[in-house]
């Protein structure tokens, strides 16, 4: 195992964006969901995206956003990828891909193995699938809740597109998550926060070091 791809999501300050880029994050996520504590305005997002351009893939995270909203983000922020984290259909992903010329990633909520089935439909149009845990019943957020699912359900998954694992990842469990799921790409938000919505540069660096450690350990196995 080597070269695990890492996405750090919900970056909202220049300090934490720089920490993520400097530590080698492959993808950085900007949150465009007003109910999220990681939500950024278009102006903030432009600044953060300019820091990341050419250094990491810029992902705009949206939840059931209309085409006008997506167009504004595309024109002003210029993401490489749209992440769809709501109940968007494969058809709406295809429309966004054609209209905006970006890559598209669809988040799928998992609580049991049967939930993986829908990934095969989305994988026809999506460039990447993101598996996240089903949100707790009382949560207003469809993602970013810091909860995990049974990683072993992903083992030996056969999809025609790459997939990312997310949900409750942090430095203490990432090695185990990679080992049990077989994921080559991971995504996290809460696990590098000192309080809800507040990313911590030290936790970002420690997380990236833990991923490197997991890679080295796997090569020795
Ligand atoms: O982070 C959020 O606030 C959020 C809001 C709405 C949709 C998605 C969101 N985050 C995504 O969820 C994963 C998992 O988060 P966590 O690591 O369990 O906190 C995160 O990486 C984002 O892609």
TrEMBL record:
This protein's record includes keyword Hydrolase: no
CDD domains noted in UniProt: PRAI (cd00405)
InterPro entries: Aldolase_TIM, PRAI_dom, RibuloseP-bd_barrel, TrpF_fam
Keyword Phosphoprotein: no
Coiled-coil boundaries: none
Recorded family membership: Belongs to the TrpF family.
Domain named N-(5'phosphoribosyl) anthranilate isomerase (PRAI): residues: 6-208
Originating species: Roseibium denhamense
Known EC number: 5.3.1.24
The protein's enzyme class: isomerase
Pfam families membership: PRAI (PF00697)
NCBIfam families associated with the record: PRK01222.1-1
Designated name of the protein: N-(5'-phosphoribosyl)anthranilate isomerase
Gene3D superfamilies per UniProt: Aldolase class I
Protein keywords: Amino-acid biosynthesis, Aromatic amino acid biosynthesis, Isomerase, Tryptophan biosynthesis
Record field: catalytic activity: N-(5-phospho-beta-D-ribosyl)anthranilate = 1-(2-carboxyphenylamino)-1-deoxy-D-ribulose 5-phosphate
Gene name as annotated: trpF
GO molecular function, one term: isomerase activity
Pathway: Amino-acid biosynthesis; L-tryptophan biosynthesis; L-tryptophan from chorismate: step 3/5
Domain of life: Bacteria
């Amino acid at each position: 195992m080597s070269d695990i791809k890492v996405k750090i999501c919900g970056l909202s300050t220049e300090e934490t964006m720089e920490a993520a880029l400097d530590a080698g994050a492959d993808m950085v996520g900007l949150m465009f969901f007003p109910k999220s504590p990681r939500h950024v305005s278009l102006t903030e997002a432009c600044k953060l995206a300019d820091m990341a351009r050419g250094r990491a893939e810029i992902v705009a995270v949206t939840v059931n956003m209309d085409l006008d909203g997506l167009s504004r983000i595309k024109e002003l922020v210029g993401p490489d990828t749209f992440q769809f984290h709501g109940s968007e259909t494969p058809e709406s992903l295809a429309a966004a891909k054609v209209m905006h010329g970006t890559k598209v990633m669809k988040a799928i909520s998992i609580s049991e193995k049967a939930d993986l089935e829908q990934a095969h439909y989305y994988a026809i149009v999506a460039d990447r699938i993101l598996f996240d845990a089903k949100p707790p019943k009382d949560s207003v957020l469809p993602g970013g809740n810091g909860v995990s699912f049974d990683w072993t359900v992903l083992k030996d998954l056969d999809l025609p597109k790459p997939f990312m694992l997310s949900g409750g990842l942090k430095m203490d469990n990432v090695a185990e998550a990679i080992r049990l799921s077989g994921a080559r790409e991971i995504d996290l938000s809460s696990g590098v926060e000192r309080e809800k919505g507040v990313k911590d540069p030290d936790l970002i660096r420690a997380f990236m070091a833990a991923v490197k450690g997991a890679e080295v350990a796997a090569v020795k196995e």
